[in-house]
Amino acid sequence: MSMNIKKNDTVVVLSGKDKGKQGKVLGTVPADGKVVVEGINVVTCHVKPRKQGEQGGIVKREAAIAASKVQVVCPKCSKATRIAHKTENGKKVRVCKHCGAEL
Q1: Which letter does DSSP use for residue 102 in this model?
Q2: Dihedral of alpha carbons 53, 59, 62, 64, sign
Q3: Are 61 and 27 in contact (CB under 8 A)?
Q4: Per-residue pLDDT tens digits for 4-56
Q5: I want to staple 29 with a disulfide (CB 3.0 to 4.6 A). Which of 34, 40, 67, 101 is the partner?
Q6: Alpha-carbon torsion, ordered 14, 17, 21, 23, to 10 deg
Q7: What is the rounded distance in angstroms from the CA atom of residue 73 to the CA atom of residue 63?
Q8: Cα(5)–Cα(89) distance, rounded to whole angstroms?
Q9: CB of 18 within 8 A of CB of 70?
Q10: How many Å apart are CA 10 and CA 23, to the nearest integer?
Q11: Dihedral of CA 30/31/34/39: which sign?
Q12: Residue 22: in which H helix or E strand, if any?
């Protein structure tokens, strides 16, 4: 399964508790088809101190969300869009379905 979403893309969430929110992709997990988005799917983790002098406690962090639940936002027309692929100068590039701008 190939993913059209890459690190540093701006995406909008299509479903779930964070529906409608936008955020920047911090990382991807292509093997599981998931992405980690800034400020989306925030979970609380109970962290145990591992080293002497290290602080433990409850930490909030972003968990991975299914890539199918997010859609890339075009930087030019600022609409949530599906991604088309075009070949330019022998190189495959991602383009917006609405305005044709390169992503």
Answers
A1: B
A2: positive
A3: no
A4: 899 999 999 999 999 999 999 999 999 999 999 999 999 999 999 999 988 88
A5: 34
A6: -90
A7: 20
A8: 22
A9: no
A10: 6
A11: negative
A12: strand 22-29
- What is the distance between the alpha carbons of residues 86 and 51, in angstroms, rounded to a whole number? 50
Question: Which residue type is seen at 76?
Answer: K
Cβ neighbourhood burial of 20 (10 Å; 0-12, 13-18, 19+): exposed
Give tens-digit pLDDT for 63-99: 999 999 999 999 898 889 999 999 988 899 999 988 8
- Which token pair is 48? 């145990």
Q: Cα(61)–Cα(58) distance, rounded to whole angstroms?
A: 10
> What pTM value is reported for the model?
0.82
Label the pairing between strands 65-66 and 34-37: antiparallel
